[in-house]
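note to self: dont lose this again. the chain is below, predicted strucutre after it. 528 aa total, dont forget to put it in the shared folder this time
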Amino acid sequence: MSAAPDKWRPSLTLVIFTVLATVGVLPLVGLFFFRLYDNQLIRQTQAELIAQSRVLATIYAQEVTARLDSGLMLGAEVPSGVLPDPGDQVTPIRPALDLTANDLLRRRPDAQAAPQPAQPAYVGIGARLTPIIRETQKVTLAGFRILDPQGVVIAGRQEVGQSLAHIEEIADALHGQYRATLRNRVPDKPPPSIYSFSRGLGVHVFSAMPVIVNNRVAGVIYTTRTPSNIFDHLYQERTKFVLAGLAVALGTIAIGLVFSRTITLPMRELIDRATRIGRGDREAFRPLRHYGTREFAQLSHSFLGMAEQLARRSDYIATFSAHLTHELKSPLTSIKGAAELLQDSVQGKAGSLTPAEQETFIANILSDTKRLEAMAQRLRELARAESLPQNERTELAPVIADLRSRFPASSIEASGSLALMIGMSAEKALIVLSHLADNAMRHKAGTIRLEAIEERTTLLLTMSNDGEPISGPNRDRIFDAFFTTRRDQGGTGMGLAIARAVMASHGGSIRLKPTDQGAAFELQFPMG
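---
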């Protein structure tokens, strides 16, 4: 398999750090890039202007009402759709200016000469309201203009006697509609360079509140103010913002530590184990120190289990190959020597074999050939035994019936939970039991007993016989491939190795049990 292209790739630590850092600065991005905080300050300013204008409008309306009998003229009639429902107890005006929606207009146009002067009664009202607006301005820092129904300024620090009726928001207010706008402004002095991040410094909020008397416009309360600058506000609330920043930083660090503990460290340790296993370090099969998450624990167990199984498989193949080479060497050497002697005899060379000797060598060749055939058959059975199972299930009862028919000369007794399903095919279960029965018969067993016991998810089958016992030195070697005490009788030493391979490939096991007489094996079948 070709290796992955050698190019730069970010580490998991770098990815996690980048994600956390991005999440941490998102609030600042929202404040500066999307102007969210500027917008909030602008709407706060508009809300304040609405409240101040409403108070002045109420006073103005009372003054106008008191002078209606003296011939005071009102302005345009307010359309029915603009007037609030008389049944409503509250009619709030909600701030709706939006700096991000391009609501920003050009600088406010200058005042123009009034087509006709304001009525003296309105001038008198303006004079009465002037002290109020001046005292209010000292505290709120807002600019106030009081306009008559024609848009002429009757009170304010500047532009008294001039007309503002041509300005968009005032034109709407003179027809009974409240209107607020954002307009560009030029600061009195150059602001610090850092203030360029805030668009709120370069705007003015204008609010035009109509004064309604008898469903007609009696005038306009025109107010203006610059919104609070974001940096001024941040400085005033610096303690809160520092605490919020610390909370975000600590939260980000805590999340980073959790990610490091649960993902980064286990992954690095798993990578280190894979590298050590690749170098042949068998100590690397030990469990990890930290698993982190459940998924990493499952991944680690699966990976280390697979690696250990492959290592055992590699060791098994190496050992098996060495044993196989040794087992094949003897019969092949014998066949080769006998064939060379027979060839010399056929060619009439000195010291030719007698007919009796020729027959002996031919018999040896046939015997060794038969042994090689038996060994090849066992190798095929072993390869088939180690193949992975595919949804195999069977009952023990029919398998034992087939075992009795295969060994009719033996007395095979069976008891216990024989009707339960095991996770193995009948063919492979019969292979296992047949090798055990054949081994028992060759060691002079007269009776073979099988007892099945159910244990949760497994079925324990004890298979014992009354044959010759297994000697102490041989008990640890009986499952080794090619180990046999009947080599001169044609034994290959593969029977028990095949039985163990079949059980292991199906998730089961086989072991030799201690017994006073004969031999006993315990087989653990997975339940089907």
